[in-house]
Structures are given as C-alpha cells and as structure tokens.
Task: inverse folding
C-alpha cells in the first residue's frame, strides 16, 4: 500500500464527503461527539455496502487501510489538476 502524497488532507475531505453522502442517503446522522475512527469505519462499511469501493479482505481491515481506501475514493472524485492530486 503506497501512501498518497496528500493522504492526510484527502482523508479529512473524504470524511466530510462520506458524512454528507451517508446523511443525504438517510442512513446515518453523525454526532459531534463521534470519533474520527468511528466515522471512518462507518463510511468505509457504507461505501463497501453501496459498492462504491472495493472491499478489503477482512483480515486486512484496519484503521490505516480504511483511511487509505477513503483517501483513494475521494481522490478519484476530484477534477484533474486539483492541488491535492499533485
């Protein structure tokens, strides 16, 4: 798993986009007290369920790999030439 250049920023944006996606779908309502790791896990599972991302083998699922998958998912939604893709 090769780390993306701006992975931390991509993960932050992916969490926001994933929260918006889940709330617009009407399947979740995030609270201010929800931890980032809980949000990451829920968003990852939701995107796998909706077939938006390829699932990891269950033995490889960890906070680090879920963060990476969310960063990849979000980076593919950005337009070419976006600063986070450079």
Result:
């Amino acid at each position: 798993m090769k780390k993306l250049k701006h992975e931390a920023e991509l993960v932050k944006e992916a969490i926001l986009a994933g929260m918006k996606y889940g709330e617009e779908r009407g399947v979740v309502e995030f609270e201010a007290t929800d931890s980032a790791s809980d949000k990451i896990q829920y968003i990852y599972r939701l995107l796998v369920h909706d077939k938006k991302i390829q699932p990891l083998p269950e033995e490889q699922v960890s906070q680090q790999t879920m963060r990476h998958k969310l960063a990849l998912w979000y980076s593919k939604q950005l337009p070419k030439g976006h600063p986070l893709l450079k």
In short: The mean pLDDT is 94.
